[in-house]
């Protein structure tokens, strides 16, 4: 009898030990070894990326390429779902959607950011950049750093700057060569006070409408013209409603890629690195291809014969810059001394 009892006790003890080891029950926290690296690694992450432009544009193509690279670099554990053409939200609605966590990545134009951080009006100053090299210097230098630090204080984490290109003017009334040619005309612009002021300074009116309404307001004659890059003017068909286009390069349309910092910090570090790596690769790809894409769209607009095109000469640009130079002084306070100093350093070669 005694022998049987000891066998039962021995078996029972063995089962208990097996259950504890097998199911990893915590006997006490300090004895449990957690492999931080593995936390969250075996969950799939879906990041919703919303933007407002057509697929065949610099931002549209870059977003699709980014989604591809993220899938590849995370072996499918992170999926980026693209929602182009403003199908989910307009440019301004995207900011609230990002903060609500309804989308996880947005790529607003700098002008859209100005409603959330006034310092960004710096990027809307007229004739800020002369060429892509200056743009790259700004994005990769102190100007970019100041802007990203500033937007972070407003609750958004910027992880990259994306290029589109220089903005051009179109209108339905007359050829525009000199600032006086624009007097009395109305133009659709993005919601940036620096843009409104630019047009007011030279006797024109600037009105804002969401990007997806621009074609209709041009068609219905609610505004005489608009400003945008060649890729947007072509991909949205604006040129079909505009008799005249001026290649002015008066502003640069760039984007900042924003994520919600709270969400970003929940993604396992190993995936964050892959996402940032993908973002850096796409940013470089876009820098090399945005200019060609806009040139391609220019050829298609010119080839259509619908729009009469005038390209501003350097002398004509000097007239525009002279008329608009005062905006730099007017915005010094809003932009801040340091950022204005950095901008002046960028432009130093131009004015000498
Ligand atoms: C606009 O004019 O609203 C567009 O430039 C927006 C964009 O993202 O390109």
Distance between the termini: 107 Å
- The assigned structural class equals alpha/beta
Average pLDDT figure: 91
Biggest pleated sheet: 9 strands, mixed
CATH topology: D-Maltodextrin-Binding Protein, domain 2
Report the strand count.
9
The CATH homology group name: Bacterial extracellular solute-binding protein, family 7
Bound small molecules, by name, code or SMILES, are: (2S)-2-hydroxybutanedioic acid
CATH architecture: 3-Layer(aba) Sandwich
Q: What is the CATH first-level class name?
A: Alpha Beta
Q: How many independent structural domains? A: 1
The helix tally amounts to 15
Helix coverage percent: 40-55%
Which value, in Å, is the CA radius of gyration?
27 Å
Backbone shape: globular
Percent of residues in β-strands: 15-25%
Q: What's the order of the H and E elements?
A: HEHEHEHHHEEHEHEHEHHEHHHH
Low-confidence stretches: 16-30
Q: Nutshell version of this structure?
A:
The chain is an alpha/beta fold. The protein is built from 15 helices and 9 strands.
Describe this structure in words.
The chain is an alpha/beta fold and 352 residues long. It has one domain: 3-Layer(aba) Sandwich (D-Maltodextrin-Binding Protein, domain 2), CATH 3.40.190.170. 48% of the residues lie in helices and 17% in strands. The protein is built from 15 helices and 9 strands. Strands 1, 2, 3, 4, 5, 6, 7, 8 and 9 form a 9-stranded mixed sheet that branches. Helix 2 links the parallel strand 1 and strand 2. The radius of gyration is 27 Å and the shape is globular. The chain binds (2S)-2-hydroxybutanedioic acid (LMR). (2S)-2-hydroxybutanedioic acid (LMR) binds next to loops. The site of (2S)-2-hydroxybutanedioic acid has 11 residues, from loops.
